[in-house]
């Protein structure tokens, strides 16, 4: 893997690359969402829409989804700066998904019709985005839910937690169907349905064979916990962020 770094700005919790490969969006523990220009290597805009730390962001079809410790997930209608012809991004809030406690992670299914959230108390919630209603609530971790993701076919959800557990949930029934344990908390991951690439507390990237229940490769990454990870649809580029305040760009080489 080859990588390139942007100058640090704030301690980051989540990051992703917008379509067009010109802008990186990152969420921060200081309650804000930042927009970085790759070409100029600096922050170009800020969204201030939460009352507490923004723990995770997702993007699909010009909509931004932001989870926060203020116990909400907010859905924003967004127009990137490159589409407005200005340096400013335009956002309007469309919906607010309320939780009882802090939300630490969210993820969308492939069609962006479902959203899964994980809370500080260990509950995984599956939402129907077309009606903004709860489908299932599953208490499956003994502490904070670190990350969640849908399988490519949207039939299952994988979650990781502070307790070191990796759980697979059936989306239709809300049933916990399998569970495995790692040696340390895995803060974030990406999942293609079989193989998991996770970011660990120690800063390593771990490649998991989920069906075999084992780690197949370890990659040295950040100097400190890996807090966020993202991969493009072509599975050719990966972005990671960590407590070392670095954004790393990885190019997969086969």
TrEMBL record:
Keywords: Repeat, WD repeat
Pfam families: WD40
Start-end of each WD repeat: 47-77, 96-137, 138-179, 219-254
PANTHER family the UniProt entry points to: F-BOX AND WD REPEAT DOMAIN CONTAINING 7, WD40 REPEAT PROTEIN
Protein name: Neutral sphingomyelinase activation associated factor
Species the sequence originates in: Phyllostomus discolor
């Amino acid at each position: 893997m080859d990588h390139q770094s942007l100058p640090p700005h704030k301690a980051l919790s989540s990051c992703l690359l917008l379509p067009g490969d010109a802008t990186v969006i990152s969420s921060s523990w200081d309650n804000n969402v930042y927009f970085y220009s790759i070409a100029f290597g600096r922050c170009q805009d800020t969204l201030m829409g939460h009352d507490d730390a923004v723990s995770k962001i997702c993007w699909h079809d010009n909509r931004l989804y932001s989870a926060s410790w203020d116990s909400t997930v907010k859905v924003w209608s967004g127009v990137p700066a490159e589409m407005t012809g200005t340096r400013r991004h335009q956002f309007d809030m469309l919906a607010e998904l309320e939780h009882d406690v802090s939300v630490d992670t969210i993820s969308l299914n492939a069609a962006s019709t479902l959203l899964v959230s994980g809370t500080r108390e260990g509950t995984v919630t599956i939402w129907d985005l077309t009606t903004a209603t709860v489908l299932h609530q599953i208490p499956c971790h003994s502490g904070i839910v670190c990350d969640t993701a849908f399988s490519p076919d949207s039939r299952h959800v994988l979650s990781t937690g502070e307790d070191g557990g990796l759980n697979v949930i059936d989306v239709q029934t809300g049933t916990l169907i399998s569970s495995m344990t790692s040696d340390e908390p895995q803060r974030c991951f990406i999942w293609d349905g079989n193989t998991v690439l996770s970011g660990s507390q120690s800063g390593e990237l771990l490649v998991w064979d989920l069906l075999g229940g084992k780690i197949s490769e370890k990659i040295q990454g950040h100097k400190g916990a890996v807090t966020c990870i993202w991969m493009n649809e072509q599975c050719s580029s990966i972005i990671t962020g960590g407590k070392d305040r670095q954004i790393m760009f990885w190019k997969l080489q086969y």
